[in-house]
Input
Amino acid sequence: MKNIVLIGMMGCGKTTIAKLLSKKLNRKYIDIDDYLVEKYQMTISEMFEISEENFREKETLCCQEVGMLKGTIISTGGGVIKNKKNIDALHQNGLILYVDRPIAHIYNDIDVSSRPLLKDGPEKLYELYEQRHQLYLQFCDYHIYNDGSLDEIVDKIIKVYQEQ
Output
């Protein structure tokens, strides 16, 4: 049974959608950021304080571990696509879906104080989108636009998954 792996910008709804998918499909759910925090007993911000490279190395190890699971709903951090090793590990037994959401909606909904990369303001979110959008498209099996209700996107994802 393949995993359902959600990629996309921070704040696009990956975690919320993954939790709903987990309930609806009665599957285990893992958020890679939570997995990282638990495994290394450090917050994401603390890992970034050491260096972004430190965080990304730990993220890759976690992707490799989680990628071996079966039948799991996995939500990733927004920068997971920065390292192709992460995508390869998650893709080995997973269907990768890019959850794409308008940046203005994301910025209005997220708490920027808990996002180390957004400490410099909203411009950074647009800049990250410009840097990452093509990578999300390149690495996904399906591009899902998140502009409706949560129920609609969850149903879309389930339909795509079942058609596999």
In short: The longest helix spans residues 122-139. The mean pLDDT is 91. The chain has eight helices and five strands.
